[in-house]
């Protein structure tokens, strides 16, 4: 069974034109095994004891698994503990395998942590590492503080930098996030800008590529490496000098590009400025060679790079946006329409790399619009006919009320007059505090009775 690294190396060598027999001899594996992995019949699994989809399960139980936790805890407490001493302790706990099996399991599982005080990262001898032409591309993220506020990227922008180790040619892509879809998009764009794929890609221990705990390639990134036909090389922990070419490119990008970037540029304009600087300044630098001095562009032109795949790896790029008052959503220098009811609402823009359209969905993941993707930074406004009609209808409906005239006569109404009398301390006649009319029928009855009573007779009438 091939490890994930061997599987990636096999696909990379096969993409370079190696035969299955040559790959089998190089990796020390059987030809039928190599053929099965290249054809997709078998796939590389994870660590022992973990089975992935399509990976062959173990035929025998893992005898070392019960002792792995003890070894990890013991070596964490004492990183310099001899393996022979650990072997003696395991024998007392019932360990039945051999000593070579123990040392192999310690290496494969990475159970012995590095002792950083014993190997400091600075003040050590630095060797000159040879980089053959077309062999390696180095990648790294550069965090750039305080991007322009109108970008909406928060307090930090991210620049993915890729550099050819031999010639020193580098390119960068500005990103709002460092998640895996943005990483894959940046890898594809930089690879095409550099002119093609090298034999291997070197990364530090970024979590989207390398598992920080095991140091193995992430299962989600293995498919990306096989899509581009490259091998993945991980830098050892705290060994930044191993990828010094891209580290120097990071320093140049921060000092000569980001430090002088104006505040009134858009992300697309900033990307264009970076590409122009790399082409006019970065590629004209002189490098010392065995035949004299040559420019970076000349050295990069002579590197044997493989053409990149016809389409990018199909990752889905997802970003959040707020629709404007005109029901438009901004994405990579263009604006796309949504229904007028979503003006001011937060929506999600999704774009599958390699496709010619994008989807706009609500926060509940309901897709409400699909548009044809416009060229990046073109400043285009892509609007659906239905959205335009609905927006015009909403705008007309909102302005049908008759405006007030400046000289219209509007005297105080009943409510205003009642409030004024209350302020003057007068109670309105025939009303209560609530304004209701009160009719006292007892007064009407008393008046009627008085009228029916005859007046007393005079002296003449009494006779």
From TrEMBL:
Residues 129-303 form the Integrase catalytic domain. Residues 415-428 have a biased composition (Low complexity). SUPFAM superfamilies: Homeodomain-like, Ribonuclease H-like. Signal peptide: none annotated. Gene3D superfamilies: Homeodomain-like (1.10.10.60). Residues 400-434 are annotated as: Disordered. GO terms for biological process: DNA integration. This is Transposase. It comes from Saccharopolyspora phatthalungensis.
């Amino acid at each position: 069974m091939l490890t994930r690294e061997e599987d990636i190396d096999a696909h990379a060598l096969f993409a370079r034109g190696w035969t299955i027999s040559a790959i089998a001899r190089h990796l020390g594996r059987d030809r039928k095994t190599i053929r099965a992995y290249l054809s997709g019949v078998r796939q590389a699994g994870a660590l022992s004891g973990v089975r992935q989809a399509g990976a062959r399960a173990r035929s025998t139980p893992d005898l070392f698994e019960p002792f792995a936790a003890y070894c990890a805890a013991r070596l964490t407490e004492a990183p310099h503990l001899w393996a022979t001493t650990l072997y003696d302790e395991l024998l007392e706990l019932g360990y039945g395998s051999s000593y070579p099996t123990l040392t192999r399991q310690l290496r494969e599982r990475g159970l012995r942590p590095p002792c950083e005080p014993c190997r400091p990262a600075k003040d050590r001898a630095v060797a000159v590492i040879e980089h053959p032409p077309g062999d390696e591309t180095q990648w790294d993220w550069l965090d750039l503080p305080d991007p322009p506020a109108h970008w909406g990227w928060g307090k930090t922008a991210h620049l993915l930098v890729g550099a050819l180790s031999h010639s020193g040619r580098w390119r960068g892509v500005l990103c709002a996030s460092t998640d895996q879809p943005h990483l894959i998009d940046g890898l594809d764009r930089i690879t095409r800008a550099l002119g093609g794929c090298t034999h291997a890609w070197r990364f530090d221990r970024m979590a989207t590529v390398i598992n920080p705990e095991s140091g193995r390639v992430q299962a989600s990134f293995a498919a990306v490496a096989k899509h581009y036909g490259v091998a993945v090389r991980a830098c050892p922990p705290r060994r930044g000098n191993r990828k010094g070419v891209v580290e120097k490119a990071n320093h140049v990008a921060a000092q000569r590009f980001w430090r002088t970037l104006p505040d009134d540029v858009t992300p697309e304009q900033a990307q264009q400025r970076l590409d122009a600087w790399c082409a006019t300044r970065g590629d004209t630098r002189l490098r010392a060679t065995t035949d004299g001095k040559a420019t970076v562009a000349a050295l990069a032109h002579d590197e044997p790079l493989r053409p990149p795949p016809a389409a990018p790896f199909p990752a889905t790029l997802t970003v959040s946006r707020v629709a404007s008052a005109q029901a438009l959503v901004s994405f990579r220098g263009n604006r796309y329409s949504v229904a007028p009811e979503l003006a001011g609402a937060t929506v999600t823009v999704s774009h599958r790399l390699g496709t010619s359209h994008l989807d706009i969905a609500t926060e509940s993941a309901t897709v409400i619009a699909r548009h044809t993707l416009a060229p990046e930074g073109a400043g285009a406004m892509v609007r659906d006919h239905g959205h335009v009609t609905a927006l015009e209808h909403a705008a007309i409906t909102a302005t049908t009320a008759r405006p007030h005239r400046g000289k219209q006569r509007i005297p105080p109404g009943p409510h205003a007059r009642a409030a004024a009398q209350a302020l003057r301390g007068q109670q309105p006649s025939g009303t209560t505090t609530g304004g209701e009319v009160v009719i006292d029928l007892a007064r009407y009855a008393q008046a009627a009775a008085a009228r029916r009573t005859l007046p007393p007779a005079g002296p003449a009438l009494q006779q």
